[in-house]
Amino acid sequence: MVEQGRGLRQSVERQAATASGYPMLLLLVGAVATAVVGLTFVEHQPAVGATFLVAGAVVAAFVAIGFFMLQPNQAAAITLFGSYKGTDRASGLRWVLPWMARRKVSVRANNIISERIKVNDLRGNPIEMAAQVVWRVTDTAQALFDVDDYRAFVLVQIEAAVRTIGSRYPYDDFEHQEVTLRGNHDQVGGELRDELIARLLVAGIMVDECGFTHLAYAPEIAQAMLRRQQAAAVVAARQTLVAGAVGMVEMALEQLSAKNVVELDDERRAAMVSNLMVVLCGERDTQPVVNTGTLYQ
């Protein structure tokens, strides 16, 4: 059965007309027994013996050729002279007419970790990416007849989807205002899954789970980007330190004035602010200096 869509003949899975193999196994045993009985009659009653022998052998051969076995989560596509006749998903011993071909396909979950590929992110920076994808066949007719090799098709589409998602976002945003590959794993992973589902739909394949297993700057810019990250971290730390120091100086001056501990004019206030900022923002331990004079001498 096929459907017409966008100029393509799309296959659709349907149930095949197969039977359980156990009743046919009993028939096979009966046919073999008939042939054995005919063999015993050949010497005394040649005509009867030959009839039983030939009939039993023909039926046994006919029945034996039609057997096939399906494991759990395994299916078999049935074709007749190149025409798709349906898919059998019932596990166990199965039987179909001998002239029908059976092509088995696994419908179990498959796990793939792609190769590391180099991609340019949204800002043009070269990065390395690799993805882990859990996929399974949901439509055996599409997987077998709409693409040449569905496993190779999955590998190619994973690489294409990773490149698409990798070029859609920047690797990192030092100002934390954009969606990034490094900082938004769940969102980016969800978009990767949606991209893969859309690409693998033609092959009857569903993606259950996916995510990035490797994400890093390419070696040629890794050191430069590391220095940039370190510089940004230093700047951010300094900003936090200065903001805290200003708050502490302001609080100290307010409490000194409120409790009338000391009267400070503008020049002495400036000197105190300078000293406090040096103490609070300095990277080294401060050394006390005893001033025996005054600020104006």
Automatic annotation (TrEMBL):
One of its GO terms (biological process) is proteolysis. It is found in: Membrane. GO terms for cellular component: membrane. Its main location: membrane. Gene3D superfamilies: Band 7 domain. Pfam families: Band_7 (PF01145). It is a single-pass membrane protein. Coiled coil: none annotated. SMART domains: PHB. Residues 65-229 form the Band domain. CDD domains: SPFH_like_u2 (cd03402). The keyword Ribonucleoprotein does not apply. The chain crosses the membrane at residues 21-42, 48-70. The keyword Protease applies. GO terms for molecular function: peptidase activity. Keywords: Hydrolase, Membrane, Protease, Transmembrane, Transmembrane helix. This is Regulator of protease activity HflC (Stomatin/prohibitin superfamily). It comes from Sphingomonas aerophila.
